[in-house]
């Protein structure tokens, strides 16, 4: 995987103080390959690599990082920035009803997404939502919207297939106004390909209803073709947002980068299943990791930096699954954490959403606890560490005395150990993060 290849390259760059043409060539080549494999369009890749190189060259390498690690960090940040920073929710800041127009090719997921958005708006933003289909070409499409709207718990406005799309939408808008709907979602006809007549129709529709949001719905599996579609829709309509659908498929979602650049609008949502609740607010940071084909590139940087052995973590996880996680393993987890520079130092380096919960905890206290736990486990015999169930009252007293703590502390450690066993059983490997969250609070 890219992650393996990058971490190998990162290792070869140890001891170099600066990012230079020479030492980033190989890294950039790998990143370029990864992006192309993820279906990012070539011009977008070229642009991206140029920007990364620009930012990276000559950059001082911070603290204990080496050029490779610094570069990986730059790549990740730039990738997330390219796909949009922060969260871009729907803009409803208009005199209600706020009109949302759905645009995109046939099969992109417009009708499904209309219902998903209706549900999102009802549940998350407490809105009263009406949907209408301007798809006059296929009666089945109108029925489909009716069905999914019901599932979403929203209301549906019937369309007369003999009317013009703009008249249908205007009738729905009038109804929405008179019945105090907050939002009107307008689903539109499918276009199998870019078709001038249909583009003219949706432009006309747009002009009639003045949507506050015009969402371009695009299938992430479309790969390279998505860029042409995005360009055509961008030329026809002032897009305000993108919904990337079918991200639950095999695609690595590279389309996100291309489409965002070409459409010039933020990606607001991601479709992640056929079901009505299969919609997520788009998270650029997380998506950057997916496009690069690595779970969490920032965590990777940290791991390489501090020499935590992923194979060890995996071995440990396997052991837990087999039921063999003992206090020795617990101790080695604890010392691995110390190697990573302590809890506080580590938390600062991780992406915020990952540690939001853990950050609330008192880090100094957490570190003191860790040291004390080490002391306690070190006071146990080898047999006791392997078989914690042996630890009855008299042994606990001896251990407490040895470690200079109260017996309650030994009990507390054993409780934490048991909790940990539970956590470890649930995770598939490399679950250091989860463990730290548990310890942090
Ligand atoms: P439209 O022609 O643009 O209105 O597309 P539809 O909403 O009818 O969706 C076309 C197909 O894609 C349907 O079978 C949907 O169930 C499916 N679909 C839509 N969004 C998603 C998604 O996020 N994930 C998956 N797996 N399927 C989706
Ligand atoms: Mg449809």
Residue share in helix: 55-70%
What is the CATH C level class of the largest domain, in words? Alpha Beta
Averaged pLDDT, please? 78
Total of DSSP H or I helical runs spanning 4+ residues: 21
Any idea what the radius of gyration is? 27 Å
CATH topology of the largest domain: Rossmann fold
SSE class: alpha/beta
Characteristics:
59% helix, eight-stranded mixed sheet, 21 helices, Rossmann fold, binds guanosine-5'-diphosphate, ribonucleoprotein, 434 Repressor (Amino-terminal Domain), binds magnesium ion, alpha/beta, 3 domains, 441 residues, AAA+_ATPase, P-loop_NTPase, EC 3.6.5.4, Signal recognition particle protein, Four Helix Bundle (Hemerythrin (Met), subunit A), disordered C terminus
How would you portray this structure in words?
The protein contains 21 helices and eight strands. By secondary structure, it is of the alpha/beta class. The protein has three domains: 2-86 and 294-298, Up-down Bundle (Four Helix Bundle (Hemerythrin (Met), subunit A)), CATH 1.20.120; 98-282, Rossmann fold, CATH 3.40.50.300; 308-440, 434 Repressor (Amino-terminal Domain). Helix 10 links the parallel strand 6 (241-245) and strand 7. It is extended and about 85 Å long. It starts with a helix and ends with a helix. Bound molecules: guanosine-5'-diphosphate (GDP) and magnesium ion (MG). Guanosine-5'-diphosphate is lined by residues 104, 106-112, 190, 245-246, 248, 271-274, 278. Residues 266-279 form the SRP54-type proteins GTP-binding domain.
Strands, helices and their partners?
Blueprint: H1 2-12, H2 21-37, H3 42-56, H4 67-82, E1 98-103, H5 110-125, E2 129-133, H6 139-152, E3 155-157, H7 165-178, E4 183-187, H8 196-209, E5 213-219, H9 225-236, E6 241-245, H10 255-263, E7 267-271, E8 279-281, H11 284-292, H12 297-306, H13 310-321, H14 327-339, H15 342-349, H16 352-359, H17 363-378, H18 382-386, H19 393-403, H20 407-426, H21 432-440
Helix pairs in contact: 1-2, 1-4, 1-12, 2-3, 2-4, 3-4, 4-11, 4-12, 5-6, 7-8, 9-10, 14-17, 16-21, 17-19, 19-20, 20-21
InterPro entries: AAA+_ATPase, P-loop_NTPase, Signal_recog_part_SRP54_M_sf, Signal_recog_particl_SRP54_hlx, Signal_recog_particle_SRP54_M, SRP, SRP54, SRP54_GTPase_dom
Organism: Rubrivivax gelatinosus
Subcellular location: Cytoplasm
């Amino acid at each position: 995987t890219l992650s393996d290849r990058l971490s190998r390259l990162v290792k070869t760059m140890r001891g170099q103080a600066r990012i230079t043409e020479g030492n980033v060539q190989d890294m950039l080549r790998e990143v370029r390959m990864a992006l192309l494999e993820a279906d990012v369009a070539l011009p977008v890749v070229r642009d991206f690599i140029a920007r990364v190189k620009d930012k990276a060259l000559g950059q001082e390498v911070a603290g204990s990082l080496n050029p490779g690690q610094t570069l990986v960090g730059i790549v990740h940040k730039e990738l997330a920035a390219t796909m949009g920073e922060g969260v871009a929710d729907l803009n409803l800041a208009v005199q209600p009803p706020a009109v949302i127009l759905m645009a995109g090719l046939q099969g992109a997921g417009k009708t499904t997404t209309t219902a998903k958005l209706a549900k999102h708006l009802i549940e998350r933003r407490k809105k009263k939502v009406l949907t209408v289909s301007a798809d006059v070409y296929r009666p089945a499409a109108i029925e489909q919207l009716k069905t999914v709207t019901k599932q979403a718990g929203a209301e549906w406005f019937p369309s007369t297939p003999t009317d013009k799309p703009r008249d249908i939408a205007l009738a729905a808008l009038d109804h929405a106004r008179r019945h105090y709907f907050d939002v009107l979602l307008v689903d539109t006809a499918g276009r199998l390909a870019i078709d001038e007549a249909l583009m003219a129709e949706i432009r006309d529709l747009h002009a009639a209803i003045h949507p506050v949001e015009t969402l371009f719905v695009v299938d992430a599996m479309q790969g390279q073709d998505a860029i042409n579609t995005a360009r055509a829709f961008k030329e026809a309509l002032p897009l305000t947002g993108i919904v990337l659908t079918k991200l639950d498929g095999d695609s690595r979602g590279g389309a996100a980068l291309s489409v965002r650049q070409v459409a010039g609008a933020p990606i607001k949502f991601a479709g992640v299943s056929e079901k009505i609740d299969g919609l997520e607010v788009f998270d650029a940071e997380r998506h950057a990791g997916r496009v690069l084909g690595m779970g969490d590139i920032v965590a990777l940087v940290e791991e390489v930096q501090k020499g935590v052995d992923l194979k060890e973590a995996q071995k440990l996880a396997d052991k837990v699954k087999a039921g063999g996680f003992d206090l020795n393993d617990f101790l080695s987890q604890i010392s691995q954490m110390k190697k990573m520079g302590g809890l506080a130092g580590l938390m600062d380096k991780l992406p915020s959403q990952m540690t939001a919960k853990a950050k609330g905890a008192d880090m100094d206290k957490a570190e003191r606890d860790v040291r004390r736990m080490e002391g306690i486990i070190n006071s146990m015999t080898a047999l006791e560490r392997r078989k914690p169930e042996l630890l009855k009252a008299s042994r606990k007293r001896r251990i407490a005395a040895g470690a200079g703590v109260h017996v309650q502390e030994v009990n507390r450690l054993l409780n934490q150990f048991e909790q940990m066993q539970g956590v470890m059983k649930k995770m598939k490997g490399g679950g250091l993060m989860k463990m730290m969250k548990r310890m942090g609070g």
